[in-house]
Specification:
single chain, 624 residues, alpha+beta, Heat Shock Protein 90, Ribosomal Protein S5, domain 2, formyl-coa transferase, domain 3, eight-stranded mixed sheet, five-stranded mixed sheet, 20 helices
């Protein structure tokens, strides 16, 4: 007798359910998606013990008649696709017909539904995949599904569930994600007979985000003006520089209304932020992508979390363009900080390198000055030598154009109340004349007086940004300077890397490498970037190859060497203990405000932070 046998139908359903139902959050996701596909405008979720004991999802969607109520319990039964052509252009959240039968096979399941206008509804009760009863009922129009005792018939799966608090946190996150994607739908979550949150329908995405993460955080987000490029439309909200997180939990992406995960989106976000984000940090983003359903495959993951794009580079380029444009145009002036004392609500702290800091606002992007900075003469006159950031620099004093006339007259400061008054006037970009230099704190932080309050400038970070952008501009025009080697360096590469390098020899040349094939998979290096200060250039070459592999061909090749540029200018910039005269500080501020991105250094640390008058008054007890 043969060894291969067909599994019993009930056992096959339970095995298949493992791909769809991982935990209570998976049940909530599938049932809520069905409600949204049914056109529901009100969705209520009730849970007990983190969803382990009970999950009840009630909606006011289109409902079902008795035939459909029974048919939806059959595997691979769905109303959302009909032909194989439909599979290539999916516009609904569900389409496989697996969720309902999978859930019913591993729990005590009850379905009640009624179509609008029908005299009676239908009630279906299933216990562990076995149909127990089908009855008439008098439920309101819509559908209600109860899932009790999840995995009661699969002890092996049940023991892998986490604590009730952990499971509740997962399902709450799932529901919040769906609520952000569908702001015109009312959502509510009741846990153990206590209301967790209730979100009314709204036409404002920012209002929906504020209802979930807090109005303070939502108010500081930068809105992405809709951008359409090569069939990809991008909109949403992103956090300003400095609003980083140590994980991706606050990085949400929606494709045609579906929450998705894609590595190419993560890479595009980092490229869009560029040097405005610290390494190891992830931006706070609520990104909405719209594209032709036929240009994306959502059928590559059992839980439909991951997607595959037909033209991933088009998606990446659209995201990069939208994010970088938003950072350039929206970060014009900072918003006054919110106080942390008194009766005013404290804002959510920002997390930088897993440490809590008080919220501070960074300055935005002014115009680009095409003239090379005179501060760069320090880098031009000397060879860059390594030194610690905190050590005393041996750089010559920074040159300053023109004579100094002392402190400039400062315009009259506005009252704190006037700062909150709405205005239709177009706000001008900041200029150095808008600030009065008060002094220097700790030979590092320059204190500036502005109309909005107190501004602090990190002289080292500010000089880093100035030198970085100047050197990068020169490299884009002239290429990186090279230094010939006395003896060529032979680097043997794997065949795949060698082919990649052979196609990008021009890119390496612009970065300062002299490279050519030398037979087989060997690359001969006879020149290196002049400012490369390391004993293992082959390691740096492999790092560049890795960046070429993941970068888009449409991105600037000089981005590949920017980490090296950032390290170089960090060594050349003024240090914490370098005492600068007021004219030098004034020139540094002017050059900083003429940079492309003056609000952070090349490593993503802020260069300018502001403490508004309102916050100062609260700290001194002048305002509640």
């Amino acid at each position: 007798m043969g060894k291969i046998r067909l599994l019993h139908e009930a056992l096959a359903c339970q095995v298949a359910a493992g791909e769809v139902v991982e935990r209570p959050a998976s049940v909530v996701k599938e049932l809520v998606e069905n409600s949204l596909d049914a056109g529901a405008k009100n969705i209520e979720v009730r849970v007990q013990r983190g969803g382990i004991a009970l999950i009840r999802v009630t909606d006011d969607g289109c409902g079902m008649d008795r035939d459909d109520a029974l048919m939806c319990l059959e595997r691979n039964a769905t109303s959302k696709i009909r032909t194989k052509e439909d599979l290539g252009a999916i516009t609904t959240l569900g389409f496989r017909g697996e969720a309902i039968p999978s859930i019913a096979s591993v729990a005590k399941f009850r379905l009640t539904t009624r179509e609008p206008g029908a005299l009676t509804g239908t009630e279906v009760i299933i216990n562990g995949g076995k149909l127990e009863s089908v009855n008439d009922c008098g439920e309101p129009p819509g559908t209600q599904i109860e899932v009790r005792a999840l995995f009661f018939n699969l002890p092996a799966r049940r023991k892998f569930l986490r604590t009730e608090a952990t499971e509740h946190a997962h399902l709450e996150q799932v529901l919040k994600t769906q609520a952000i994607a569908h702001e015109r739908v009312r959502f509510s979550l009741v846990s153990d007979e206590r209301l967790t949150f209730q979100l009314p329908a709204t036409s404002s995405l920012r209002e929906r985000i504020g209802g979930l993460v807090g109005d303070d955080l939502a108010s500081r987000l930068l809105e992405i003006e809709p951008l359409e490029q090569k069939g990809v439309k991008v909109r949403g909200f992103i956090g300003p520089p400095g609003m980083g997180r140590s994980d991706r939990r606050h990085q949400l992406t929606f494709l045609n209304g579906r929450p998705v995960e894609a590595a190419i989106v993560t890479r595009a976000m980092r490229e869009g932020y560029h040097t405005a984000l610290m390494k190891g940090q992830y931006p706070v983003t609520f990104l909405f992508l719209e594209t032709d359903p036929g240009a994306v495959d959502v059928n590559v993951h059992p839980a439909k979390r991951e997607v595959r794009f037909h033209d991933g580079f088009a998606v990446q380029d659209a995201i990069v363009a939208a994010v970088s444009r938003t950072l350039r145009e929206r970060m014009i002036r900072p918003v006054s900080g919110v106080g942390l004392t008194g009766s005013a609500p404290a804002p959510s702290p920002l997390i930088v390198q897993d440490e809590l800091i008080e919220p501070a606002t960074v300055y935005g992007t002014p115009r680009l000055d095409p003239r090379p900075s005179q501060l760069f003469t320090a880098l031009e006159r000397q060879r860059v030598e390594p030194s610690g950031e905190g050590s005393t620099s041996t750089n010559p004093s920074l040159s300053v154009a023109g004579p100094t006339t002392g402190k400039r007259p400062f315009p009259e400061a506005r009252s704190p109340d006037a700062l909150t008054e709405p205005t239709d006037a177009v706000e001008e970009k900041p200029k150095a004349s808008d600030y009065r230099i008060i002094g220097v704190l700790g030979k590092l932080y320059v204190l500036l007086e502005a109309r909005e309050g107190l501004v602090l400038m990190d002289q080292h970070a500010a000089h880093e940004r100035v030198l970085f952008e100047d050197l990068r501009r020169r490299m884009e025009v002239e290429g990186a300077p090279s230094q010939r080697l006395l003896a060529p360096l032979m680097v043997e590469l794997p065949p795949r890397d060698f082919d990649l390098v052979s196609r990008h020899l021009e890119t390496l040349e612009r970065l300062g490498f002299g490279a050519e094939p030398f037979g087989g998979n060997t690359l001969k290096i006879d020149a290196l970037p002049a400012f490369l200060k390391r004993d293992d250039p082959d390691v740096f070459l492999h790092e560049v190859i890795q960046e070429i592999r993941v970068a888009s061909d449409r991105l600037s090749s000089l981005r590949l060497g920017e980490d090296l540029i950032a390290t170089t200018v960090c060594r050349a910039a003024v240090k914490a203990n370098d005492a600068l005269r007021e004219p030098e500080l004034r020139k540094l501020l002017e050059d900083l405000l003429h940079c492309d991105m003056p609000y952070c250094c090349p490593h993503g640390r802020p260069t300018l932070i502001q403490i508004g008058y309102a916050e100062l008054e609260r700290k001194f007890g002048r305002r509640a």
